[in-house]
Specification:
Blueprint: E1 2-8, E2 14-22, E3 30-31, E4 51-52, E5 57-65
């Protein structure tokens, strides 16, 4: 998800401010490794999901166009 705002300096020059967010709602996103052929047969782990995706990340950018 991202938003941006353009600020005109002159007719041909401007600044653009941009903010982008990843996993912006910060909901848990459990993952399982289905690429592993033994995933379904691993009874020692009790078929538990032990990994999750990245936390919320936000990045900012400022661009000058002329």
């Amino acid at each position: 998800m991202g938003i941006h705002k353009v600020f005109n300096v002159t007719e041909s020059k401007n600044f653009e401010f941009r903010m982008e967010g990843f996993n912006i709602w910060n909901h848990p996103q459990p993952t399982a490794s289905f690429n592993n052929a033994n995933w379904f047969y691993n009874t020692a782990a009790g078929a538990q999901i032990t990994t999750a995706r990245d936390q919320r990340q936000i990045q900012f950018a400022l661009r000058f166009t002329f």
